[in-house]
Structure formats: C-alpha cells, structure tokens
Write a structure and sequence with these properties.
single chain, alpha/beta, seven-stranded parallel β-sheet, 9 helices, 39% helix, globular
C-alpha cells in the first residue's frame, strides 16, 4: 500500500513508520530534514518541507498517489498558544484538501485526549467534548471540518484520540523520562500531583494501532488509542524506584500540592471491536523498556 505520512520523523511517527515499513508498505514522508535514518530504508522516500509550504511539495504527493495518508504533524509543540494552534488548523485543512484532490482513499489524523477536556472516568469516543484551550479547540475543529472536506470528496476519514504516550525516544522533559533521569541520579523529582491518574500507553502499541487502522478500517470513525486503564504518577515513581532497586526511597520522592485529583482513561472497546487492536505492553514492562533505553540496558 502507498502511504503518505506527516510527522513521521517525530517520537510517535518514527515508530509508526517502522511498523508500516515492516508490513511492506511504500512510504512517502514529509520532513523538514531531507536525510534521516528512516530515509535510508528501502521503499521509503522523503520529501523535504513543512506543513506551511505545501505549494513546494504538494505535486510530489500527487505524483506519489497515496492510497492512505496519516497526518501526525503538529508544528511547534509543546507550544499550545492560539496563534500556533490556528496555524496548525489551517495547515491541516489545506493538507486534507490536497489529499482529497490527489485521489487519496483514506486519511487518518492523530488527535489528543485533551479534546475531551477535564473530564473523569472512562472516556468514550461519543461523549460530549469540552475543549479547554486553543490547542484542544483547534484539534476539534480540524476533526470536524476535515471530516466534511473528506466527505465531499468521498474520502474515508478516521480520527484517533491518543492518550499519554511514553517510551524510548520521548522528549526528556516529559514525565516518565524526567522521573527516570532523577531517580538514576539519586535526585528528588518535583512531583506536584502524585495522585493524578492518566492513561499511559506504550509507543509501540500506538504504532501497532495506527498500522492496524491502515489495514483494517473500512469506514469513517473516531478511535481512542490508550491502555484502557489509569495509572497514578505515584505508581510510576514506585515502578521506577523498584527497577533501580531502592523502593525505600519512593515515599521521599514526592512533593505534593493540594490540586484536585485527575483520573481518566480511554474506553478502547470500539477499536478492539472494529479494528482488532488492543495494547500488548503493560506499564511495568513499558517503563522497564524505557529505563533500559536510558541506561543502556544496565537496569533489569
């Protein structure tokens, strides 16, 4: 299958590209950098550019004639301000229009659990959305308007809401890499909300989910991609401490505040039923793999 990918050299995207490549797909990646390890793989071509200059690379996409496109790029993260969000909304809609005009059969977009807003409990795809900042509002708008653009061109449109992804290669300032780095140095991580619980999903499972949607999806739809369970920050600290073999320090690594406790997780019954995907790597195993990445495998 011919698949065009934006964001394919990012944290999640690089795993998605490797998964798709392992399944024999021909890939065209949009990247700001013309050379990367991914570009050296057979049946992978890179077109240089970013979302804002589609006039310079759009014809290459049309000549490639993608059967499926995966839009994962969101420029300037972790900047979530209104100007950046509006720009990404505009670029995304232009891209979806270009893909529709190229005869693309399906487009898959990666959204965020932030679209649900500050809700609690198990979150289903069909509950009311409550965007609470420019980023989540722009995500919702891209979903709704992009779906209509695709419908007008008879192009299948799939929207995914990804929960808290972690794993090797994640930005070092993210929660789990930060905790690992502090613990391995013997330092106390500054954890303000130890009892907050989120749905942490391992990056390889996310890549498998997106690849499964490419293969199996036969209709428009929205799918949560998460572990289906919630894990507290305190539990993550304890897992990391145990991996480093000093569990007695777990209680001293916390500096809590009195913020309200957050606890939510993905309902993944729809993607299980429609696509046949479910996560394979639990939080303990996933953190272990992440620790081994950061330590060169010296911690078992």
């Amino acid at each position: 299958m011919r698949v065009f990918v934006t964001g394919g050299t990012g944290f999640i995207g690089s795993y998605v590209v490797r998964q798709l490549h392992s399944e024999g797909n021909a890939l065209l990646l949009l990247s700001r950098q013309p050379e990367s390890a991914l570009s050296k793989m057979p049946n992978v071509e890179v077109v240089q550019g970013d979302l804002s200059d589609a006039a310079n690379w759009g014809n290459k996409v049309k000549r490639f004639k993608p059967q499926v496109a995966i839009h994962m790029a969101w420029e300037s993260l972790p900047d979530y301000d209104a100007r950046t969000s509006i720009g990404n909304l505009y670029y995304g809609l232009n891209l979806i229009t270009l893909l529709a005009e190229s005869g693309c059969e399906s487009v898959i977009c990666t959204g965020s659990c932030w679209e649900y807003g500050q809700q609690a409990g198990k979150l289903r795809e069909d509950i009311a959305l409550k965007p609470f900042n420019a980023f989540s509002a722009a995500m919702n708008a891209l979903h709704w308007v992009g779906r209509e653009v695709a419908r007008e061109h008879d192009m299948r449109f799939i929207w995914t809401r990804i929960f808290y992804v972690y794993g090797p290669g994640q930005r070092g300032t993210s929660l789990i890499p930060y905790i690992i780095d502090c613990v391995r140095k013997g330092e106390n991580p500054e954890i303000k909300t130890p009892w907050a619980k989120n749905d942490f999903v391992y990056v390889e499972d996310v890549a498998r989910a997106i690849s499964a949607i490419v293969r199996e999806s036969q209709k428009d739809g929205v799918y949560n991609i998460g572990s289906g369970t919630s894990t507290s920050v305190q539990q993550i600290v304890e897992i990391v401490c145990n991996k480093f073999k000093f569990p007695e320090k777990c209680g001293t690594l916390i500096n809590p505040t009195n913020r309200p406790v957050v606890d939510f997780w993905a309902d993944i019954s729809k993607i299980k039923s429609d696509i046949g995907w479910e996560p394979q790597i639990g939080i303990g195993e996933g953190i272990g793999k992440t620790i081994n990445y950061h330590t060169g495998g010296i911690v078992q």
